[in-house]
């Protein structure tokens, strides 16, 4: 009677049960190290929300030029229309979430360009206000203005000055100035803008000649 062949020896159990999981655990640890921390994610979210807030303040033309996703432009429109504090806070969080899907650099450039344009406009308004004060203070300023801006209708300017000065005498500090005072400011602002445009045209013409 034949004996059955001996069964092969069983493999000894792994003395180190953690050995098999060592490599997966290391890979998992490396992957976790690459993930941003909660504080970093919170900071990034805050940055995107602030960028979205500045984006909501841009003009329609600048927004259109950025060619943003429709979902983001709709979210910005909703944010502008929302009046409650809590509603605006939650909508801004949603805007920040959508901001992750777009390249932020063109948006930052558009915001910077808008701020620069606003600063120039503010400077131009201050310049016009200073001219109005000087013109109302004395006729010597009228001569300086006409020398610098000869295209101005001198008679119209003097009529506006006469009416605006009379208006100032009859207006208290808490009252709104009359129409001549405002029209004088508009005349000055238009004259300054025309002079600046002419200067830019001269510079471009000089550049073409070179």
UniProtKB/TrEMBL annotation:
InterPro entries: DarP, DarP_sf. It is found in: Cytoplasm. Residues 1-16 have a biased composition (Pro residues). Residues 17-34 have a biased composition (Acidic residues). It comes from the Bacteria. Its main location: cytoplasm. The keyword rRNA-binding applies. Residues 1-44 are annotated as: Disordered. Pfam families: DarP. Keywords: Cytoplasm, Ribosome biogenesis, RNA-binding, rRNA-binding. CDD domains: YjgA-like (cd16331). Belongs to the DarP family. Member of a network of 50S ribosomal subunit biogenesis factors which assembles along the 30S-50S interface, preventing incorrect 23S rRNA structures from forming. Promotes peptidyl transferase center (PTC) maturation. This is Dual-action ribosomal maturation protein DarP. It comes from Ideonella azotifigens. The gene is yjgA.
